[in-house]
Amino acid sequence: MRRLGFVALFALMIWVSHSCFVGCQKPTVVNLGAIFTFDSVIGRAAKPAVEAAISDINATPTILNGTHLNLIMEDAKCNVFLGSTEAFQVIEKEVVAIIGPQSSSIAHMISEIANGLQVPLVSYAATDPTLSALQFPFFVRTVQSDANQMIAMANLVDFYGWKEVIAIYIDDDYGRNGISVLNDELNRRQAKAFYKFPLPVHFTQNDIISLLNQSKLLGPRVYVVHVNPDPKLRIFAIAEKLQMMTSNYVWFATDWLSATIDSFAPMNRTVLHVLQGVVALRQHIPESNQKKDFMSRWRKMQQKGLVTSELNTYGLCAYDTVWTVAHSIDRFINDGNNLTFSSSGKLNDTKTTEMNLEKIKVFDGGAILLEDLLRTNFSGLTGQVHFSSDRNIVTSGYDVINIDKMAVHTVGYWSSIFGFSASPAETLQGRQNSHSETDQKLHSVTWPGGKKERPRGWVIADDERPLRIGVPYRASFVEFVTELHDSHKIVGYCIDVFTEALKFVPYDVPYKFELFGDGRSNPKYDQLAKMVADDVFDAAVGDIAIVKNRTKNADFSQPYITTGLVIVAPIRSSKSSAWVFLKPFTVDMWCMTAAAFLIIAVVIWVLEHRVNDSFRGPPRRQIVTMFMFSFSTLFKTNRKENLAP
Fold first, then answer.
1. What is the pLDDT of residues 455-474, one digit of tens each?
2. How many whole angstroms separate alpha carbon 629 and alpha carbon 455?
3. Which phi and psi (to 5°) does residue 281 adopt?
4. Alpha helix (H) ranges present in 63-172?
5. Contact criterion met (CB below 8 Å) for 399 and 407
6. Alpha helices, DSSP H only, in 230-312?
């Protein structure tokens, strides 16, 4: 019996050791999914970058040593339905994470699938701010969110002092939610008007023409364009044909434009002439040796025909995304976790005859891998890769670019720490953070039309109603303002001043005069000022005195008529004379003044004669001293000086 127990214990030890060996050994292959649109501005750069990253990871012994990373890619073809079906096909192959998609609309759909199956979804291009919501806990973003980009765009609009903006955007999750953030940020900066003009997802030339013509009816001439990357630059090409790229207009674009431009081959950059004066944002990528080496490698790949596009910021983000997932998988495995999948009870309970839902399994270690993803911190092509609490990559800011003469110029940088600066944020580390207006700097910008001066940014709209100018219809002093009975024309001195002042305004201001009063009695000016405050009149012109109670209701211009008490006297011509100093006083006044001097002289002589030797002597001397002393009182104080001992 004792011998039998020993054999059983030995067998149990062998079984436990074998189980631990099987459970703790590294897997030979780990499947990684990728869903994005291959044939697109972003996809043509992302696909070779992702493949290059997979090749580098599998060739690097310091990461996933002994484990091969197998990439399974599917083409979403810019379609939400196809992207969703491709997601199920990828998940059937037991992937531990999915890279992509680039479309925010597809990301919304796949995120729900990722939540249910606990598969982290790591996107390098879906920038919709709402994807950071708690609704999508398995969504991780390795590109800057549009929440940051719209803060930068609002700061850029406010930097130049414009308060009225027209936004052109794609009417989907990406466009609507991004523009919504921009609207909120502009409101925080006291913007006066924000007009939204949505475009269909698959917009046509006619859609653009109709939209731009509608926007021309409004007063603002500051445009912000937030659409998907478009190699044909259709919005700007049509705007140029509609004479909307002139010096009266201002055009801003989000980073879709910089991604599009960066994808152009050097020989295809002649199309940039339609972008003259456009200002756009580009995700800031710090300069590094890693980035330079990869760009050199990219050029070699182009020479071999392996890539058909230039490298843009999304390609760099895609490369770092693969490395981010690889680092997290490596940590996951090294911590002794197993890559296991189990069937979902909810899916098994679903009665279906056509769909093979039993093939779809839940990743058991998905929550742990997600934590490892969010703890990732390494130096990549885009800089330091680490994440914030809302599962977004920590932002490095944006470049501010300006297109002039078919060339792209960097005119400055924006970061959440320093605001606008002429140098990248990484070179400003250690300096005091400041967002004051005096510290915000950008280089000179060339605006549409080739001008360096900041455009006004608005015009009087075509359908703008004329200004209602209230004028008092007086019964007296009609020289200031009145109505001619024969022509019903408003004339007068105040009207002349108003029309002359309008000549200094460099644009046309439509207006119409509206009489206030019946012309039989003078109207109440306090009521006229209140009607301006109540928006009955837009302004008032007339002989309106500036008094305290009226200034509480309306703003006044500088007075153009001198007010106060004045003396009106006739002007008499007189010849100049040496005796002109006698003019201020009459003869009687001069006689009284002389008598006063005489009396003062006599009084002083009487008082000083007996005690002061200066008032003694011959009569002539006494008379001279007496009158000199009296006269000197006009110019000095006659007193004895007390000297300090």
1. 988 887 765 678 899 999 88
2. 75
3. -105, 145
4. 80-91, 104-117, 146-159
5. no
6. 234-241, 255-263, 289-303
Beta strand extents in 393-505 (DSSP E only): 398-404, 407-415, 419-421, 467-472, 482-483, 490-491
Tokens of 542: 């007339």
- Are 66 and 28 in contact, with CB atoms under 8 Å apart? yes
Question: Which tokens belong to 514?
Answer: 């509206």
The answer to whether 460 and 468 are in contact (CB under 8 A) is: no
Residue whose C-alpha is closest to residue 412's, from 168, 160, 181 = 160
- CA distances to 493, 495, 496, 554 from 562, rounded to whole Å, are 14, 17, 17, 20
The maximal CA–CA distance of the chain, rounded, in angstroms, is 165
Can you read off the two tokens belonging to residue 175?
A: 């466009």
Q: What's the rounded Cα separation, in Å, for the pair 531 and 385?
A: 60
Length of the chain: 645
Q: pLDDT tens-digit profile of 554-572?
A: 888 888 776 566 677 777 6
State residue 468 phi and psi, 5-degree precision: -90, 110
Sheet with strand 68-75: strands edge to edge: 68-75, 29-36, 98-99, 121-123, 139-141
pTM greater than 0.90 (yes/no): no
Gap between the Cα atoms of 46 and 36, Å rounded: 9
User: Which letter does DSSP use for residue 96 in this model?
Assistant: S
- Name every residue whose Cβ is closer than 8 Å to that of residue 637 and which is 6 or more positions away in sequence: none
Q: How many CB atoms lie within 10 A of CB 578?
A: 6
Residue 64, amino acid: L
Measured from the Cβ of residue 191, the count of other Cβ atoms closer than 10 Å reads 18
Q: What is the mean pLDDT of the chain?
A: 86
Strand partners, 467: 511
Cα–Cα distance for residue pair 411/278, rounded to 1 Å: 12
Q: Is the peptide bond before 101 cis (omega within 30 degrees of 0)?
A: yes
**Phi, psi at 239, each rounded to 5°:** -60, -35
